Each structure stands twice: as structure tokens, then as C-alpha cells.
């Protein structure tokens, strides 16, 4: 990556990535709920993917708005 971007463009990219992560998190949540009764292993796999996208969104949230969310352990 050799392009130099200003802080506004970087912030736009981070926000776009956050929106994508939230969309994926919602999709995998729905998929997990859909598979719960018929395919427990598939539901677990979907839940892991949902948690992964949720974690990405939280990290990007912290970059955009440091300290907005309290640390949850």
C-alpha cells in the first residue's frame, strides 16, 4: 500500500469497514438462529463468525471513538 491518504479519508475507510463488519455480524447472527434447530454445528460455526465480526466492529469503534464503550471482560 503506497498511497498516502489524509486523516479524513482514513476515517471514512474505517467507518465503511465498521459498517461492513456490523452488516456481516447481523447476517451471521440470522444464519446462526436459522440453523439452530436443524444444524447445531452449523449454528455454532455461524455464531463464531458472528462473534468475529462483532469483535472487529468493537475495535473499529474504539479507533473512531476511544473510550466510548467501557471495557467488558
Structure description:
The chain has 73 residues and is an all-alpha fold. The chain has a domain at 8-14 and 23-64. It is built from 2 helices and no strands. The chain has helices at residues 7-35, 40-64. The model has no long low-confidence stretch (mean pLDDT 91).
Percent of residues in beta strands? under 5%
Please tally the helical runs, counting DSSP H or I stretches of 4 or more residues. Answer: 2
- Uncertain residue ranges: none
Radius of gyration from the alpha-carbon trace, in angstroms:
15 Å
Structure summary, number of beta strands: 0
Sequence of secondary-structure elements? HH
User: What distance lies between the first and last C-alpha atoms, to the nearest angstrom?
Assistant: 35 Å
Shape: elongated
Quaternary class: single chain
Helix content: over 70%
The computed structural class is mainly alpha
List the SSEs and their pairings:
Elements: H1 7-35, H2 40-64
Amino acid at each position: 500500500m503506497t498511497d498516502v491518504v489524509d486523516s479524513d479519508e482514513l476515517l471514512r475507510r474505517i467507518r465503511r469497514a465498521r459498517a461492513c463488519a456490523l452488516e456481516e455480524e447481523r447476517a451471521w447472527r440470522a444464519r446462526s438462529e436459522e440453523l439452530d434447530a436443524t444444524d447445531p454445528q452449523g449454528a455454532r460455526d455461524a455464531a463464531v463468525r458472528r462473534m468475529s465480526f462483532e469483535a472487529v466492529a468493537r475495535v473499529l469503534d474504539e479507533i473512531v471513538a476511544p473510550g466510548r464503550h467501557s471495557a467488558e471482560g
